Amino acid sequence: VQLMESGGGSVQAGGSLRLSCAVSFTSGDRFSSYCMGWFRQAPGKGRERVTVIDSNGGTDYAGSVKGRFTISKDTGESSLYLQMNNLKPEDTGSYYCAADVACSRLIQGRAKHWGQGTQVTVSS
């Protein structure tokens, strides 16, 4: 499984960005079977779970982004998205896409598959 993020950039506070994660599977894997999520890491801080979407489309968000960020997926395109609105300087960091067949592992930050990350910078 390979994950490739895109869509990061620099915006002013209050702005929006949409991150994408393209997922490539080896033979036999199905995107619909995977739990997917977005994590972020700010400079000098640990990795933080931002949001998760399970195989049934159920979602969970960190309190700090609830109401501002929306996770979605396109099974036909094997892609994961993160719409980020009303961005704040504290949202700055590297954003990573993650995938695992077990949501329990992903939620704990121990997902089997990770992307390389895309940088988001929010200026005040």
Secondary-structure blueprint:
Layout: E1 2-6, E2 9-12, E3 17-24, E4 35-41, E5 47-53, E6 59-61, E7 69-74, E8 79-84, E9 93-100, H1 103-107, E10 113-114, E11 118-123
Instruction: Please report the total strand number as a whole number.
Output: 11
Main pleated sheet: 7 strands, mixed
**What fraction of residues sit in β-strands?**
over 45%
Series of secondary-structure elements, N-terminal to C-terminal:
EEEEEEEEEHEE
Low-confidence stretches: none
- The percent of residues in helical segments reads under 10%
Distance between the termini: 37 Å
Basic shape: globular
Using only C-alpha atoms, the radius of gyration works out to 14 Å
Oligomer: single chain
Pairing-aware structural class of the strands and helices?
mainly beta
General description of the model:
With 124 residues, the protein is mainly beta. Helices cover 4% and strands 50% of the residues. It contains one helix and eleven strands; from the N terminus they run E-E-E-E-E-E-E-E-E-H-E-E. It has one helix spanning 103-107, and strands at residues 2-6, 9-12, 17-24, 35-41, 47-53, 59-61, 69-74, 79-84, 93-100, 113-114, 118-123. Strands 2, 4, 5, 6, 9, 10 and 11 form a seven-stranded mixed sheet that branches. A four-stranded antiparallel sheet has the order 1-3-8-7, with no helix packed on it. A hairpin with a 5-residue loop joins strand 5 (47-53) and strand 6 (59-61). The mean pLDDT is 96.
